Request: fold
Amino acid sequence: MTDKARPVSARPLQFAAGFALLWAFASQAAWAQDSEEFKRWAVSLNVTHVFVDEDAPDITLAGGPVPGSNVRIGNATSATVDIGYFFTPNIAADLFLGVPATAEIDGAGSLEPIGTLAKVNYGPVILSAQYHFNDLGKVHPYLGVGVGRIVFLNERDRALANFSIDDSWAPAAQVGVRYELDTAWMLNADVRYVPFSTHATGSLGGVPVRTSLDIDPILANVGVSYRFLGSIGRFLTEELNIKRESECWV
Reply:
């Protein structure tokens, strides 16, 4: 059995960087509309439990189907963060990411005697649009829809050798609620549904194994949120102006 680490794909970082730039331009556009009371930014630190529902409907060994075969993937718990920007008091964009969790992929059905097939770390990067309801006093329910990239890292062989699993795009739906503790701090709880399909390959005793995987995870989050004033666009503009002024004096 061997452990191998796949090079980290640049796509999730590009995805997050593009979202940050979008935020910067949006916050710059909203600069003139800022009031002293309106806190546009919100950061949430969460504990997230992932409930996994999985199916591997077409496992093949040397190109032929394996009757009665399936896999089982355990649930996991991880730390995550939400970074949100409110365009209005009701409408926000949210970026969700966290510490990669560990999935143990076990054989099920006719593959159960083999035991653990492989291990892998995984994590979603989710960009969502949210609508917040603000007419219930200290309680703020919200809904979100978006798209996520499920990223797999650090694949480790167990019963399977040369195990590999593909990253995947996924739709994302969210329902949550925040409770105001004061003007800045809030408690947060939400549930996300992020269904996706992917493909995995490996070899068993030198014989190639392939399968598709249909995975329907539910992410249950509880945490604390902090809302604050600020503008990335304003910060970048001020930094650029300072740089230009310093260059003029050189």
Notes: The mean pLDDT is 86. Residues 11-30 form the longest helix (20 residues).
